[in-house]
Design goal:
heterotrimer, A alpha+beta, B alpha+beta, C alpha+beta, A: alpha+beta, Ribosomal Protein S5, domain 2, six-stranded mixed sheet, four-stranded antiparallel sheet, 5 helices, 14 strands, about 30% helix, about 30% strand, elongated, B: alpha+beta, five-stranded mixed sheet
């Protein structure tokens, strides 16, 4: 009988009292993210994001498919986010909860509908063949802030991913293996990132990146997705308690600042990873050693 | 696929001849269906919705989590599209958009209703979308509010909603004019947000935006949206009062 | 208590040299949690951890710290202690297990299993005519806490506990086929002895081994609470189900105490580290 366990009255009262006194349980400032850790897998397109105790892994895979007839010049891009019981016993397979639905919808709007990935670049032969890209989001550990962490994971994985090169001769397309030709990065148009605001005390107190217990106490949340260029890709406030419109607008300003900070971190990690790989490649070429 | 916006930038009139801050014709009725506890019929331009409320009735077993969860009543929302509602016939009954719609309705209306008065019970909202021409979520929210009032479910205030789009700007520097109450043609071309406010103070209950827009554009859209919500509130309030007069 | 620790993995055969040497032939070797006897002479491990032996008591057990890092524990791992007497196995009730240190593994799953006599912090879920349904660990069957199992409670004067309130209770029955029963009163004296509803304060999640070590007192080798209590006053309740309830009057002080213990737990701090953690915590107040 899995169910989300509710927080006890003692914890609820304590968290609220602490917020009144400008304190968070883990000692963070109200507008601070938990420490973000981002690591990449050995393969291209695997990103492992740890946001405090929340951990999300995104993996990109590619396949060749026939494009849908109504979108001949587009490739296919799917984001699949499912909760597994691994993250929390409250999650059940096959019965999507509201949180799961919100997560997959937000990722869809934030990344797919905002055209973060240029799907036209995935087209191989118009109407006949295209790359079908699939991003799988695995929630490994759940301690709140899933939307933010998942969005970081997917965007980092997309930027890390390299697709195999392809040669087209008339109607014939040949996918070149990684050995034959250096795989090419995806064309990313912009980098949307989500920032969740949880608010308490009738919209008086706003928290960024709430953990699980704070999420259980909050009045409601606003998820803002922005990119570092200052474009708002998505805003979601699905009900909950009401909030002052000015506070809502303020969220977009704070989000922009946070998104800029996080973009920088992600970019830094990507560059570090690329450097690591590059050195490896050069060394491998220069090396006289044979693989036995 | 840019919209032919020349009409707007020249005459400041939209495709259907409205000005930027003009609502479409909003027509609403309540108590349209005798069998339901409460019902409403709402037209926002060509978007037409029939909404019925049944309950509060005994909660289904297994629903609502049981245990301590049932000390409050719960709200269930069921959204269905008529096959003829859009330009294309819909194939699948349930898709992500439908669940998203019903989830938004549930979570936005639940805090307004005094559900603690109905322990162990369920209130079911059924929305039938008869015709869609943009501003779907806003129309659903407005009709649900009316139907709940008709059913006599105690609630704190009206939740009224409108959509608001940001028209393409003529210069790069400033964001374009906000357009109130978009129809489906505008919805497809322009970034828009749905805004729902509660009460006279215009506190935001719902805010959903699904398309990319410059950060500066949001401010204008929210400001115009709040204005629009207040106007919708007046109309909705008028409908309820008009209905009440019949009994006086 | 031996300082020597051998890391073992499930299925390892424990070499006879690692086991305590019986000074007295009469005294049987006692096997604690995580060890299994396969007749005639083999002893294998069933869990990963550090092998700890006690020559004086002629006992051996596995010390494992599987405090799940995340908030919610899951996936049960069952450990049945056995006592071996002349190659005959008898199942005995759990022994209090002191420990000298622990090996922390991140992200291992463990769930508390109710056993009689343990002190737990339970959360009230709902109330029936006879008892409160409480959960000791989330996502498992609830335990029953009779309405009369409180100090001074009788038919006419019964405690009212709203859902999601906390109680400090002792497990009186943990049958395999029945739901566990807990009580907030000592049956022999009729006194609460510190058990009962917990008001105010805050709950901190700690690992099961930390809870065990805290309850073991001096033998547990955790001096954080003692260190803090020298400088400030606070109330604590330690639940074997991995919960620590703290009330130190103010939010700041409560947080400082809770975080100091969590820090000692997560980083597996030794004596010195714990002292430092205490100093840091005191500085914050």
């Amino acid at each position: 009988m899995p169910r989300e366990t509710e927080i006890s009255v003692n914890e609820r009262a304590f968290i609220q009292q602490a917020l009144q006194e400008n304190l968070r349980l883990d000692g963070r400032a109200f507008d601070a993210f938990r420490p973000l850790e981002l690591t990449f897998g050995d393969e291209y397109g695997v990103a492992d994001v740890q946001l405090g105790k929340t951990r999300v892994i995104a993996r990109i895979s590619v396949d060749v498919a026939v494009p849908p007839p109504e979108r001949k010049f587009d490739g296919i891009f799917q984001i699949i986010a499912e909760f597994s019981p691994m993250a929390s016993p409250a999650f059940e397979v096959g019965r999507p909860s509201d949180a799961e639905m919100v997560l997959s919808r937000i990722l869809e709007k934030a990344i797919r509908r905002s055209n973060a990935l240029d799907t036209e670049s995935l087209c191989i032969i118009a109407g006949l063949k295209c790359f079908a890209l699939r991003a799988d989001v695995h929630i490994i550990d759940h301690d709140g802030g899933l939307v933010d962490a998942s969005c970081i994971a997917v965007m980092a994985a997309l930027q890390h991913f390299r697709r195999p090169d392809v040669v087209v001769e008339g109607e014939k397309a040949t996918i070149l293996s990684v050995r034959e030709r250096e795989p090419i990065p995806l064309s990313i148009l912009h980098q949307p990132l989500c920032v969740s605001f949880s608010y308490f005390e009738d919209g008086e107190i706003f928290l960024i990146d709430a953990n699980l217990s704070e999420e259980q106490v909050r009045n409601a949340e606003i998820i803002v997705t922005m990119n570092k260029h200052g474009e708002v890709c998505q805003i979601a406030k699905y009900g909950g308690a009401t909030v002052d419109p000015l506070a809502l607008l303020n969220c977009t300003n704070v989000a922009l600042q946070k998104v800029k900070e996080m973009s920088k971190i992600i970019q830094g990690k990507l560059e570090a990873d690329a450097k690591k790989r590059d050195a490896g490649g050069l060394m491998a070429e220069l090396s006289a050693e044979n693989e036995r | 696929m840019p919209l032919d916006t020349s009409t707007y930038s020249l005459a400041l009139l939209r495709l259907d001849g409205r000005r930027w801050n003009e609502l479409r014709r909003l027509h609403a009725q309540i108590s349209v269906q005798a069998a339901a506890s409460g019902s409403s019929y709402l037209e926002m331009g060509n978007t037409k919705i029939l909404c019925t409320v049944s309950g509060p009735s005994e909660a289904r077993r297994g629903a609502g989590g049981g245990g301590a969860g049932s000390s409050e009543g719960n709200l269930e929302v069921d959204v269905s599209f008529a096959g003829f509602s859009g330009v294309e016939r819909r194939k699948r009954r349930q898709d992500k958009r439908t669940t998203d719609l019903s989830h938004t309705l549930t979570s936005s209306l639940t805090p307004l209703l005094h559900l603690h008065l109905y322990p162990h019970s369920t209130i079911t909202l059924t929305l039938s979308i008869l015709s869609q021409d943009g501003s779907l979520l806003a129309a659903c929210i407005n009709s649900a509010t009316l139907a709940l009032i008709d059913a006599g479910v105690p609630m704190t205030d009206y939740l009224t909603a409108v959509t608001c789009a940001s028209s393409p700007s003529t210069s790069d520097e400033e964001a374009g004019d906000p357009l109130l109450d978009v129809n489906s043609a505008e919805e497809q071309e322009l970034p828009f947000l749905t805004l729902g406010t509660v009460g006279r103070e215009g506190r935001v209950g719902v805010c959903v935006m699904e398309s990319r827009v410059r950060g500066e554009g949001v401010e204008g859209m929210v400001a115009v949206g709040i204005e629009g919500c207040a106007r919708v509130r007046e109309i909705v309030d008028g409908v309820v009062r008009g209905y009440g007069k019949r009994f006086a | 208590m031996s300082d020597l620790m051998t890391v073992v993995l499930p299925g390892d055969d424990v070499p006879p040299d690692d086991l305590p040497k019986a000074q007295n032939k009469k005294k049987a070797l006692k096997l604690g949690p995580g060890l299994r006897h396969i007749p005639p002479e083999t002893i294998t491990t069933t869990i990963a951890g550090a092998l700890v032996t006690d020559a004086r008591k002629n006992a051996a057990w596995i010390e494992y710290n599987s405090g799940r890092v995340s908030a919610l524990p899951s996936a049960p791992i069952s450990v049945q202690p056995i006592v071996i007497l002349d190659h005959v196995c008898h199942s005995r009730p759990r022994q209090a297990v002191p420990s000298g240190g622990s090996i922390g593994t991140q992200l291992t799953l463990q769930q508390y299993l109710a056993s009689v006599g343990d002190l737990v912090i339970a959360t009230v879920l709902s109330s029936t005519s006879e008892h409160f349904n409480c959960y000791i660990t989330p996502h498992t069957h609830t335990a029953a806490l009779p309405h009369l199992a409180f100090e001074g409670a009788n038919r006419k004067n019964q405690k009212k506990l709203p859902p999601h309130s906390l109680v400090y209770a002792r497990i009186v029955n943990s049958g395999k086929d029945s739901i566990p029963e807990i009580t907030c009163v000592d049956a022999s004296t009729g006194k609460g002895e510190g058990l009962g509803p917990l008001n105010g304060g805050m709950v901190f999640k700690i690992s099961l081994s930390m809870a065990r070590r805290l309850l073991a007192g001096r033998k547990g080798g955790v001096s954080v609470l003692e260190g803090l209590s020298e400088k400030m006053g606070f109330e604590v309740a330690i639940g074997r189900n991995g919960m620590l309830w703290v009330d130190a009057g103010s939010v700041k002080a409560t947080l400082a105490v809770g975080r100091a213990v969590q820090e000692a737990d997560e980083q597996g701090l030794g004596e010195k580290g714990q002292k430092k953690a205490v100093d840091r915590a005191l500085k914050k107040i």
